[in-house]
Specification:
heterodimer, A: 798 residues, alpha+beta, Phenylalanyl-tRNA Synthetase, Chain B, domain 1, OB fold (Dihydrolipoamide Acetyltransferase, E2P), Phenylalanyl-tRNA Synthetase, Chain B, domain 3, seven-stranded mixed sheet, five-stranded antiparallel sheet, 20 helices, 41 strands, 28% strand, elongated, B: 341 residues, BirA Bifunctional Protein, domain 2, 2 domains, three-stranded antiparallel sheet, 12 helices, 40% helix
């Protein structure tokens, strides 16, 4: 909303207030001022008359002038083409400050110059705020007889001493999208009296009308039309043009200007039709038209069912609430017209306006909602102005469809409730003072107060808390004390999934991984690469772009993108992870994605070098699960059988937890990586939901044996495809409970080992909780184990 | 006859100059069974009886002195040889041969965690909800009925006529209200990702994170909201930070406020970060609208509450001085690396 302080001062006495003070009060009361624009910026101006004007001898465009400014005559060199003798001009004397320069005494091509003759543009007036025929477009401003030599109030007289505030209006205050509404609000903010023009009932005149009006749409519940059989078309007065221009509205003629002006004043968009274009005197609002329509901007719009249109004889004559039609608009020779003031559903206007990309002043106001009595007010004001400025006569009575939907009402509140909600102690006189500033009639009853809400605030003020907000916002509020809620104590704690996220982050970060956040919306290409799929793809009805059309169902492609981004930016050896929800038609899953490439550890000076590989990833996953409280016994490792498109078929695996697949991990398939210009990447994706739903095992103290343990190694040569886990299982099975621990510490293939075979070295720790094991005790069991391994796995002891 | 005084002086001198090999030789030379002390002792038998005790005493004293001198010298030699060995083991302490591999938390998740910790410390729980949400929770129950401008297709990402990527974590609040209507009071924060139809640029992102807070109970006041937010801001930014309320509008709170904090860079004096005002707009808040409580079957005459919502990106950008919101989503590890903490 553009608020002209000069226009505002027609309604409120702003004397004694600086612009800064006004803005500060507005901000405190909930109106942000986005920009302050001064229409002009100049000091040291005086009206002068050119009494001599000669061409400069050394220039083809400069004039040497003598200018009478009342108390002296100044020699001034001027370059404007329209500079001539007897012209009344704006003189910026030496010392004058203009937006671009400060005027100094100077010598121009040998001629002394003691000031400057000015164009309004040089005084800071924007080009589009100048009247179309203003001499200032191409030269100096030419002043008329209103100005006397020596006058200094030039900008004031021209109406350019204005300041425009760009005020942002919250969605609950459509009343402030009108000058009258804003004036009422400013009266309350500044605690000053507001005087609005009187025009109530101005349209209650006219002879009987045979104009027919109807709405076939529930989205147009109220419509007023009024035929004016005679108007004189001409230019509108300068004050009106100025107000329109300062609101960025082009001036056309008095008729069009009045319709726009009344909209700015009352907030109700009006439309005037040339009566000649509606000869059968019938208008119907419809919402079932389908097809192209040419609006008055000369552009053809494709209308759909639901869009509100104004029609006559079944043919559209305007896009309701947005833009009139080309065939019914006011022309240069219009001599009679129809005034339209209607209420259209805000959501529907917004839909149509957004779809057509047609953002007009009218559409903006309808979209935000109108005050219920606005239509009548606007017609009243329009009739008053048409009579005053367009010699309107032969007026017909107003034709009305529907009714304005407003019943006067009161809101009741008590001081007790007000103060208990706020935590302050307002007294009744403070409340009454706010209601007086708002101009809301209020009666009191003990500690209760009952407030009558005027129609223009009825869209916003409905319940007692709404009144409370008015009181807070219009009183000084910075001294509100800071307290904490006095309610029964509660214990705050993390939920299981929140606890799991923290465990994962702590462990992975401690192992050199970086936590990432990626976009949820991805392209169709990303969706093609499914990982642990759990339903159909979910896509947006109207995406911003194809790259952000789908809601991702896996984290892999996002992490590959992040990895690639890092490699492109010369970050090598990248280990990343992300914890995020993913979606399918079957709902959501929370997943962990881990990606690694290059060295996992590289401490050159320490000669420690560990490349990222399957085992690093596997170890991390087991570590994570153990830290979450899930012993490796509950986790089953399985050969990856269902995704060999993305994963290396022989270096990948699945993890199941209580018989559900919860993770897939391993080396990514070289063919898949090739398409992404990558090589040697390891990836894991784990579903966290089941883990979060499962109670982790309770911590139990370790039982330590008081007797020493014995360590023995075995080296076996056996077929290469026998998994290590089978050997370990067999050792525990054969050895029984004195096998405290067993592990593989070396696997070797190559020289001295036949092809197809491997050498595996194992270590077994024997321990008994009851006694010290003798050499014989250990030898017996160990020998049994070795023999069993040799027999079952066709192994040879080395 | 050996002069014991001479013997003593010779011995002590030799010991004080001996290295460890010579010291061993000296020990044998003086203290062994065939050593000089023994030799001296053997002279005793030739002495008259009355002189024997004094002589014996003298020789024993001499033996003790030499023996102590040898021990002392031995200790001295050992200590100096250890020092030599240590000196020979000197390393260059300026080398960084080993750095434990340590990654970093994403700054958005770091701020998220900080918020969790601050509010858990005050007895709040951390509630979450689906990002793919029904418009019932995202809008209707948040007092944003159909036809409200905020529901527009232009502003949000719908996947079907009634479901969308949530545009505000308010949706979580509405779920909590419904689930806990019979278990008051409520004290939760609701962090999560949200989505809006914005073209990505330095200050806009179609995806971002919010954290909302909700307290419902008896006699909850606006002053309680102020106190709670002041505490949060002080924990996040600055122990002396102050906040102020500016009236605003949100459909689900009444009255509603924008909250400004004193600029953490200039402490309120005015600087480029706060555009000279000394204040920075930080979040939106208000008292929960009675309609919202009633829709969740909570008696709005008995219970009141406050709600607030803050942008996690905004907090992180202010806290760490990040100027481009897109930096959060490229995951360059050099950007992430500074958040090792």
């Amino acid at each position: 909303m553009k608020l002209s302080l000069k226009w505002l001062s027609d309604f409120i006495d702003l004397s004694g207030l600086t612009t800064e003070e006004i803005v500060e009060r507005m901000v405190k009361c909930g109106f942000e001022v986005e920009e302050i624009t001064y229409l002009s910026h100049a000091t040291g101006l005086v009206v002068g008359k050119v009494i001599e004007c000669e061409n400069h001898p050394d220039s083809d465009h400069l004039h040497i002038t003598k200018v009478d400014v009342g108390n002296e005559v100044l020699d001034i060199v001027c370059g404007a083409p329209n500079c001539r003798k007897d012209l009344k001009v704006i003189v910026a004397k030496t010392g004058a400050e203009l937006p671009e320069i400060t005027i100094k005494k100077s010598v121009i091509r040998g001629q002394e110059s003691n000031g400057m003759l000015c164009s309004l543009k040089e005084l800071g007036v924007a080009e589009d705020l100048l009247p179309a025929d203003s001499p200032s477009h191409n030269g100096i401003e030419e002043l008329d007889d209103r100005f006397e030599i020596g006058d200094t109030d030039i900008l004031d007289k021209l109406g350019y001493d204005d300041t425009i505030l760009d005020v942002s209006i919250y969605a609950n205050r459509p009343d402030c999208l009108s000058m009258y509404g804003m004036a009422k609000e400013m009266g309350a903010i500044l605690s000053r009296e507001v005087k609005l023009p009187q025009f109530e009932g101005a349209s209650d005149i006219g002879r009987a009308s045979d104009f027919r009006l109807r709405s076939d749409s529930v989205n147009c519940p109220h419509f007023l039309a009024k035929v004016v059989n005679h108007v004189e078309i001409k230019e509108s007065p300068e004050w009106m043009q100025r107000h329109l221009r300062s609101n960025g509205i082009k001036c056309i003629n008095n008729l069009v200007d009045i319709s726009n002006y009344v909209m700015l004043e009352t907030g109700q968009p009006l439309h005037f039709y040339d009566l000649r274009s509606i000869p059968n005197k019938e208008i119907t609002v419809k919402d079932d038209y389908l097809g192209p329509y040419m609006a008055l901007d000369g552009i053809e719009y494709q209308l759909e069912k639901g869009d509100l249109i104004i029609s006559s004889e079944g043919k559209p004559i305007g896009i309701a609430g947005i833009m009139g039609g080309d065939n019914t608009k006011i022309l240069d020779d219009t001599s009679s017209l129809i005034i339209e003031a209607a209420l259209f559903d805000n959501a529907q206007i917004r839909r149509t306006s957004n779809r057509l990309g047609l953002q007009t002043e009218a559409a903006a106001r309808f979209s935000k909602g109108l005050e219920p009595l606005c239509q009548k007010k606007a017609v009243d004001r329009a009739v008053q102005l048409l009579i005053e400025l367009a010699d309107a006569s032969d007026i017909e009575e107003t034709v009305e469809y529907g009714k304005a939907d407003y019943q006067p009402y009161e809101i009741s509140e008590t001081l007790t409730h007000l103060n208990s909600l706020i935590g302050k102690s307002y007294a009744m006189d403070e409340v009454l003072s706010v209601m007086k500033d708002l101009d809301f009639p209020t009666r009191t009853e003990g500690e209760s107060f009952h407030v009558s809400i005027p129609s223009y605030r009825s869209t916003d003020l409905k319940i007692r808390e709404d009144l409370d907000e008015e009181i807070i916002r219009l009183t000084d509020f910075d001294d509100l004390q800071a307290t904490l809620p006095l309610i029964p104590q509660t214990v705050g704690k993390l939920s299981p999934i929140q606890r799991i996220r923290r465990i994962v982050r702590t462990i992975l970060i401690s192992n050199g991984f970086y936590d990432t956040v990626n976009y949820t919306l991805v392209s169709a290409d990303y969706m093609k690469e499914k990982l642990l799929p759990f339903g159909e793809d979910v896509s947006l009805l109207s995406p911003l772009s194809d790259a952000r059309r789908y809601i991702r169902s896996s984290l892999m492609m996002s992490l590959l993108e992040a990895l690639n981004y890092n490699l492109d930016h010369h970050n090598d050896d990248v280990s990343l992870f992300e914890i995020s929800k993913v979606y399918s038609s079957n709902g959501e899953q929370e997943r962990l994605g881990i990606i690694m490439q290059g060295d996992f550890l590289d401490q050159k000076l320490e000669h420690v070098h560990l490349k990222s590989d399957f085992y690093v990833l596997k170890g991390l996953l087991y570590e994570l699960l153990e830290a979450m409280g899930f012993a490796s016994g509950r986790i089953q490792l399985k050969t990856n059988e269902f995704d060999t498109t993305h994963f290396h078929p022989y270096q990948s695996a699945e993890l199941t937890f209580d018989n559900h697949t919860i993770a897939i991990f391993g080396k990514l398939h070289p063919s898949f990586l090739k398409a992404h210009k990558l090589d040697d990447v390891y990836y894991a994706e784990m579903i966290l939901d089941d883990l979060a739903k499962t109670e982790p095992a309770k911590v139990r103290a370790a039982v330590l044996s008081r007797y020493p343990s014995v360590s023995r190694d075995i080296s076996l040569m056996l077929k290469e495809d026998i998994p290590a886990s089978d050997l370990l299982k067999q050792i525990r099975k054969t050895g029984g409970k004195i096998v405290k621990n067993c592990e593989v510490f070396d696997v070797y293939q190559g020289e001295h080992i036949d092809k197809g075979f491997k050498s595996v070295s194992l270590n077994i720790i024997y321990e008994d909780r009851e006694k010290t094991l003798t050499t014989e005790d250990v030898n017996d069991v160990h020998e049994k184990i070795v023999n069993e391994l040799i027999r079952r796995f066709e192994a040879v002891q080395r | 006859m050996l002069d014991h005084e001479t013997l003593k002086n010779e011995a002590l001198k030799a010991i004080s100059e001996a290295d460890s090999r010579i010291l061993e030789e000296l020990r044998i030379a003086y203290l062994s069974k065939k050593g000089k002390i023994q030799e001296l002792m053997s002279q005793m038998k030739e002495l008259p009886k009355e002189e024997k005790p004094a002589f014996g005493q003298m020789v024993n004293d001499l033996k003790r002195v030499i023996s102590e001198a040898i021990d002392a010298r031995k200790e001295e030699l050992e200590s100096s040889s250890l020092n030599d060995r240590l000196a020979s083991e000197k390393i260059d302490i300026t080398l960084d041969a080993y750095r434990p591999a340590y990654g970093a938390m994403h700054p958005l998740n770091l701020v998220w965690k900080e918020l969790e910790d601050i509010f858990i410390g005050m007895g709040y729980n951390v509630a979450e909800g689906p990002e793919l949400e029904s418009d019932l929770y995202n809008f209707t129950k948040a007092n944003t009925p159909e036809g409200h401008p905020a529901r527009d297709m232009q502003d949000t990402f719908y996947v079907d006529p009634t479901h969308l990527l949530r545009s505000q974590t308010t949706a979580i609040q509405m779920r909590v209200l419904e689930a806990q209507a019979d278990h008051l009071p409520i004290k939760v924060i609701c962090p999560g990702k949200v989505y809006r139809r914005d073209d990505d640029d330095a200050t806009h992102s179609h995806q971002f994170m919010q954290c909302e807070g909700l307290v419902i109970g008896e006699n909850i006041t606006l002053a309680d909201l102020k106190g709670t937010l002041e505490l949060m801001i002080r924990e996040l930014f600055d122990d002396d930070a102050k906040i102020r309320f500016r009236p605003s509008y949100f459909p689900f709170t009444e009255p509603s406020f924008e909250v400004d904090m004193t600029c953490h860079i200039c402490k309120g004096k005015g600087c480029p970060t706060c555009k000279g005002t000394g204040w920075i707009e930080i979040l939106g808040s208000g008292m929960v609208h009675p309609n919202v409580l009633e829709m969740a079957n909570i008696d709005s005459k008995k219970y009141t509450g406050f709600a607030f919502g803050v942008g996690i990106e905004r907090l992180a950008m202010l806290k760490y001085g990040i100027s481009d919101i897109r930096d959060f989503y490229t995951n360059n590890i050099r950007f992430l690396d500074v958040y090792k903490r």
